[in-house]
Amino acid sequence: MIKLAFLLAITGATLTQVPEARAQDVCYMDEDGRIVTRRRPGYREVPCPDPTAPADQAPAEGTPPAEVSDAARRADLALETREEPQRPPRSRNAVSPVPRPGVADYVQSVPLPDRWRIVESVGYTENLWDPYN
């Protein structure tokens, strides 16, 4: 009975401390404006959003819009200032200095004998290192 009470006390204490630890975490914003908790090269450090806040709620009519958080404002700025680089149009090179190879340019395949037949053709008859004989 004492073990059960002790276990419940420890479990209750850890559950009450989880939101505090979560609020102290550091989040990072990637190139697309998403907020993630894992740090990677090129990500910027931003404050973490409140996990208890509702994600997407449409405001009722007649209510003023809620104040936008600093992280959301930064994400919007990052998306607006990002531009696609202008690349020149690609054109195919009509004249190449190297002609394409034709069927006549390819050589017939030549079979190569294995190493034991090469040794036998030289005239060496006894091979102590031959694992097959």
Describe it for me?
This protein is mainly alpha-helical. 32% of the residues lie in helices and 8% in strands. The protein has helices at residues 2-23, 70-81, 115-122, and strands spanning 26-29, 35-36, 44-47. The chain has a three-stranded antiparallel beta sheet with strand order 2-1-3, covered by helices on one side. The longest helix is centred in the first third of the chain and has 22 residues, at 2-23. The relative contact order is 0.08.
Spell out the key features of this protein.
about 130 residues; mainly alpha; 3 strands; single chain
Please give a quick description of this structure.
The protein is mainly alpha-helical. The chain is built from three helices and three strands; from the N terminus they run H-E-E-E-H-H.
What do the pLDDT scores average to? 74
Total of DSSP H or I helical runs spanning 4+ residues = 3
Element-level helix/strand string: HEEEHH
Instruction: Summarize the amount of helix as a percent range.
Output: 25-40%
Proportion of strand residues: 5-15%
| Strand arrangement, major sheet | 2-1-3
Low-confidence stretches: none
Largest sheet: 3 strands, antiparallel
Q: For the terminal residues, how far apart are their CA atoms? A: 78 Å
Derived from helix and strand composition plus strand pairing, the structural class reads mainly alpha
**How many strand segments?**
3
What integer value in Å does the Rg equal? Answer: 36 Å
Gross geometry: flat
